[in-house]
């Protein structure tokens, strides 16, 4: 979990909400129970600072 309260969700399928590429993870925003935004590998690195 990052400082802003955004959680990283592993193993999500679908399309990145930013660019439309295949998603590898999702991000769950605070105060949203069931909604998660999906992220591709590039945007996962940009948001969470992870390298795979």
Describe what you observe in this structure:
- The structure is a single chain.
- With 52 residues, this protein is an alpha+beta fold.
- The chain has one domain (7-48).
- The protein has one helix and three strands.
- It has one helix at 41-48, and strands at 7-10, 25-28, 36-39.
- A three-stranded antiparallel sheet has the order 1-2-3.
- β2 (25-28) and β3 (36-39) form a beta hairpin.
- The longest helix has 8 residues, at 41-48.
- The radius of gyration is 10 Å and the shape is globular.
- The protein starts with 6 loop residues before the first strand and ends with a helix.
- The model has no long low-confidence stretch (mean pLDDT 83).
Provide the descriptors you would attach to this structure in a database record.
single chain; 52 residues; alpha+beta; 3-stranded antiparallel sheet; 1 helix; 3 strands
Order of adjacent strands in the largest pleated sheet: 1-2-3
Query: What is the strand content?
Result: 15-25%
Main β-sheet: number of strands, strand sense, barrel status? 3 strands, antiparallel
Principal-axes geometry comes out as globular
Q: Please, what is the average pLDDT?
A: 83
């Amino acid at each position: 979990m990052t400082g802003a309260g955004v959680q990283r969700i592993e193993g999500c399928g679908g399309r990145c909400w930013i660019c439309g590429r295949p998603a590898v993870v999702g991000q769950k925003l605070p105060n949203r129970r069931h909604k998660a935004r999906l992220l591709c590998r590039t945007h996962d690195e940009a948001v969470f600072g992870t390298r795979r």
